[in-house]
Amino acid sequence: MSGFLESLLTPQNKMLLRKLRRNKNVLLGGVLVLIFIAIAILSPIISPYSPTSGNLSEALRPPSSNHPFGTDYLGRDILSRVIWGARISLVVAVGGIAISILSGAIIGGFAGYIGGAIDDLTMGVVNILLAFPDILLALFVAAVTGPGLENVILAIGVYNFPQFARIARGAVISVKTSDYVEAARASGETKSSIFFRYVLPNSMSPIVVHATLRTAASILTAAGLSFLGLGVQPPTPEWGAMISEALYYLDAAPYMWVFPGIFLVLTVLGFNLLGDGLNDVLNPRIKD
Amino acid sequence: MLLIPTLLGASIIIFLMIHFLPGDPAQILAGPDATLQDIQNMRIRLGLDKPLPVQYFLFMERLLTWNLGNSLVSGFPITSLIVPRFLNTLKLALLAISISLAIGIVLGIVAALKRNTTADRIVMIFALLGVSMPVFLLAVLLIVIFSIKLHILPATVIGSTPSIRHLVLPSLTLGLIGAAPIARMTRSSMIEALSQEYIKTSEAFGFSIRKIILVHALRNALIPVVTVAGLNFGYLLAGAVITETVFAYPGLGRLIVDSIFARDYPVVQFGLMMIVALFAVVNTVVDVLYALINPRVRLE
Question: For all residues of chain B together, what is the average pLDDT?
């Protein structure tokens, strides 16, 4: 199977694949990310109990064979909530990043392609959005739209938009002015074929690297919003919200914050490692 | 960075906040039990009965004359709510950035000098964890260690004037998280600086390596660190929103979050404007500093 897949690859891609496999960050980060995605997809199958309903008579039980991560103040199984929490984080991050890549690529790419006053205006707006430090832009959107899963996804989308608009614009400009695009144009290729054959593939690697790193930041930000109570609402199992609920039981029930905390850190770490590794392999400019 | 246009643009977005609210903002802010008269009063109180450009003009007038009006919830003048909170956040941010710079630069230098040793790897793992650690989780960890287990520091602030003891844990939380990117940047720029010809030359001339590092390499290595520290200040202000909430620290971030819950939008608007303005000013200062330490910037 893998032999067949590999036969489809060009020699260039084969080399890339070999480099990716040899990079420790890609390997470790990739494994962590894959585990996270697997937990998120399989959560209905692998979670032993309901994540949202519990038995009050079994509240705040420390880890045991019945409840490996213990139970929370409402008697809900923490393992099941942590497992479902992966799904919420994945949905929010992927949804938010997808919104920002699409809008960023369309608006930023268009601005870079057209140039002139439209470009200046678009980049002006992008720079103003970047003046809101980090989570504050997401906080602003959440404050306007109110809490809830869809609104958090929107907030994460807006929060990442200026970054992707900037990258897409830069990529389009650098590709637009490159010699091979000039050559393709001279040889009479159509605009759409130039876009799909040259501009898009050559703009991909910075976007892929950035999307991975921004996924890490987005998971942190979404968890931060929910921690503040402005994100996903109870009883939905969300890692940030779970840690916030644990604040009243820090000493009495440390398992309430330790387990969601570990999963949150490992997931973000996975995306950060993967992003760093991909950056080393795909953009080998920096020699360390 | 263009300070004035950025602030103007940000003021427009923040001004429009009330208008972004789904539905009729006056109705939302007047509450579910409001009569038609209540809603109309709220509309006049917020100035929503006037045309949009006039509303923006009045918003800017309030901002520039520093006459921000009253809170919708408590009725207190917004200026008297925001100023002490702003000073508290500034105190926290300055302490945190000092901690970040101290820890980050020292760790970065150690890692660069002991490159590819265990010490280097430990520093890099610390840096990676720092980037992947949620602010609120580190806050929880520090509270458990220093307040609950060791009983040496208070976890939460009571009242509106935090003492030095109350500042320790919040600033340590933000400072440790902020140290991570600074350590990474110091390490890589220090490695680059140490590989420069003039360093090798001065080594050949017999200058002590200690002096070379302190005087020459570090000076050059710190140029990019200044930029990272400036950017980091933005993360710090943003992180302060969460940190202040965890520690019940009476800063601007917590005021904004509390006001979002209370739907006290004028307080949210002016609070956000203060943070954006502070961030923009710091970025401008960093740009100027950058040009001062690195004369090549001016030539470009």
Answer: 86
